[in-house]
Design a protein that fits this description.
mainly beta, three-stranded antiparallel beta sheet, 19 strands, about 0% helix, about 45% strand
Length: about 200
């Protein structure tokens, strides 16, 4: 371009690079910046259960949209395809997964995901007892790598019964009936539920 200062004209040159899209339009861009890095907007916490299908989608904001995504390390049984982590987890544990999204100019946005895989509940979901008779039922889980850090709570238990943090439902029911109780397993702020 030309700039006039007083009676003098000056020519200014700005180096540009072109990037032709599929639609044939040539985008002219400054040769130095790589654009604004994508911002990863998906939640930074997710829970899964051993033996059950899991899916998590990495979402972003910003332009241009990312062309490449990363997620590592992933728990056993899970893989990344495009921007989706999916599969069937096989090992319980809490995992810190490093997420990344890269646009066509090489600008990279990062975030982390706290992914907790819970052991599967193996105990039967039909607990039976008699009014005013002792009741004892233990919630059994598979592949519990958390040990005593895995704690249990419950809602909807019949009057006279409680659940211990270790997952033992006990007491003497005082009322007959069907009680759709919900058991919650919690570790490190993450939780899953199961009906009994």
């Amino acid at each position: 371009g030309t700039v006039r200062v007083g009676t003098n004209n000056y020519t200014i040159s700005i180096p540009l690079t072109g990037d032709q899209d599929e639609d044939g339009i040539l985008d002219l861009l400054d040769s130095t910046p790589k654009g604004v890095p994508p911002v990863i907007t998906s939640t930074n916490r997710a829970n899964g259960l051993i033996g059950q299908e899991f899916s998590y989608t990495i979402t972003t904001s910003g332009s241009p949209v990312p062309e490449q995504f990363g997620a590592a390390p992933l728990p056993e049984g899970l893989t990344l395809l495009g921007n989706t982590i999916s599969g069937t987890p096989t090992l319980a544990g809490t995992n810190r997964v490093n997420l990344s999204a890269t646009n066509r100019f090489g600008a990279v946005g990062t975030n982390s995901l706290s992914l907790t895989i819970f052991p599967a509940f193996e105990s039967t979901n039909a607990v039976q007892g008699l009014v005013n008779s002792p009741l004892a039922h233990t919630i059994v889980v598979s592949s519990n790598n958390f040990g005593s850090a895995l704690r249990f709570t419950a809602s909807g238990l019949p009057t006279g019964t409680t659940i211990s943090p270790a997952g033992v439902i006990s007491g003497r029911p005082t009322v007959a009936g069907f009680f759709p109780a919900v058991i919650t397993a919690t570790v490190s702020g993450a939780s899953v539920t199961q009906n009994v």
